[in-house]
Write a structure and sequence with these properties.
Helices cover 52% and strands 13% of the residues. By secondary structure, the chain is of the alpha+beta class. The strands form three sheets. Strands 1-2-4-3 form a four-stranded antiparallel β-sheet, covered by helices on one side. Strands 6-5-10-9 form a four-stranded antiparallel β-sheet. Strand 1 (32-37) and strand 2 form a beta hairpin. It is elongated. The protein starts with 18 loop residues before the first helix and ends in a 5-residue tail after the last helix.
Length: 391
């Protein structure tokens, strides 16, 4: 997921309340040292440096009642609060969300149909149609049901990922749209690039920024675990005699980390599934959905630009640290073989208004909470478990 913040122009409508009232709101919570109108016509207040997280949050709540916002920055040994009108934004068009969602279901179903005979066994992957294996795997069941199952897995994981962002935004009362799903036709894999939400106002502080970035990958990661467990528990079992000629014909081939996420190997060891001696366990279409879940979790957790991992690194390390970790993110992409995504990401970055900047909270002074610093370690663990190479 990427989130693109709105642009706030200093030239806007007149202030809905007098400047004296704004000054009183500031002075009620902070030690006011100076007040003036800056070159852009914005009321600006210099206050003494102190912990401001809760006080600034309360100030924003009061200002919101008058359709105003504020930003606080550190200048030397003082703090500067700038007040400005909220931007006038058009109401989100939910019809667009619905149309894109339905289109995504369609493109994912098309992808599922075209990849119907791409299945894998734990250690083996089917690379072409073979009626002997499809009969062994699916028997008399409808192949259409397998297509629908694959599509449900992909759309479900993408939806749960975005639901995590929506829940975080609603929890913090952030103004955000519903998810915009991104349908893509064949030959692009999976039939979708996932989804995005648009944040219609900046987060208040680094805590909110972290939660916004962390919530989606966490939800998607948990959904992927669920799909992998179902994949293991429902996987057909065939005999080694059935598998041997298919392996010899290279219809099946060995797969393991780093060519599939280590999460699969880990869960295969944890989830109890009895396989008789002389038989092998076969992963079917759900593995493709599970790979999609691991892939979007891995890519989104990279500490780059407006990706979820970019929000996380911006909250943890600040502006300079965020730019430094972006280099690490691009290095991981290149080493893992994701050249196409790296190029696409660079194009999107430089087409945006802030190509090298992360999402900046209104209060970029207050430090990240200790709990979220610990959760940063969990985000790194999720990234490692979902990483797999494609070269």
């Amino acid at each position: 997921m990427t989130t693109e913040p709105p642009t706030f122009s200093p030239a806007g409508p007149s202030f809905p309340i007098d400047l004296g009232s704004i000054r009183n709101m500031i002075q009620y919570r902070f030690t006011l040292l100076d007040a003036y109108i800056d070159v852009n016509g914005l009321p600006t207040f210099v206050v003494a440096k102190e912990p401001v997280k809760e006080k600034f949050r309360e100030l924003l709540h009061d200002l919101a009642n008058h359709n105003l916002m504020a930003k606080i920055t550190s200048v030397s040994d003082k703090l500067v609060v700038s007040v400005f009108p909220k931007p006038n934004l058009r109401r989100p068009r939910k019809r667009t969300n619905l149309i894109l969602f339905l289109a995504t279901i369609g493109t994912v179903l098309v992808f599922g149909y075209t990849s119907m005979f791409s299945v894998s066994v734990y250690g083996f992957t089917l690379s072409k149609v073979d009626p002997r294996l499809t009969e062994a795997l699916f028997g008399n069941s409808s192949l259409l049901s397998q297509v629908v199952l694959l599509a449900a897995g992909i759309v479900g994981i993408a939806g749960v990922h975005e639901l995590g962002h929506v829940i975080a935004a609603r929890h913090h009362k952030m103004d955000a749209t519903l998810p915009y799903f991104i349908p893509v036709p064949p030959p692009f894999p999976f039939g979708t690039f996932g989804a995005v939400i648009n944040l219609r106002a900046p987060p208040i502080n680094r805590d909110q920024l972290f939660d916004l970035g962390f919530s989606g990958p966490l939800a998607g990661f948990l959904a992927t675990i669920g799909v992998v467990i179902i994949m293991i528990l429902t996987a057909p079992i065939i005999t080694e005699q059935q598998a041997a000629p298919l392996i010899a014909a290279k219809v099946l081939q060995a797969t393991s980390w780093p060519y599939e996420p280590y999460l699969f190997d880990l869960l295969n060891q944890i989830v109890v599934r009895t396989v008789p001696n002389g038989d092998v366990l076969v992963y079917t279409q759900l593995e493709i959905a599970a790979e999609f879940g691991a892939l979007i979790t891995f890519l989104n957790l990279l500490p780059v630009w407006q990706l979820d991992g970019g929000h996380i690194s911006r909250a943890v390390f600040g502006d300079k640290g965020h730019k430094a970790t972006a280099l690490v993110g691009f290095a991981i992409l290149v080493l893992a073989g994701y050249w196409g995504f790296a190029i696409l990401l660079v194009i999107f970055m430089f087409l945006s208004r802030r190509p090298l900047e992360g999402l900046e909270p209104l209060d970029d002074i207050s430090p990240l909470s200790n709990v979220r610093k610990a959760l940063f370690g969990l985000s790194l663990l999720m990234l490692v478990l979902c990483l797999f190479v494609i070269f």
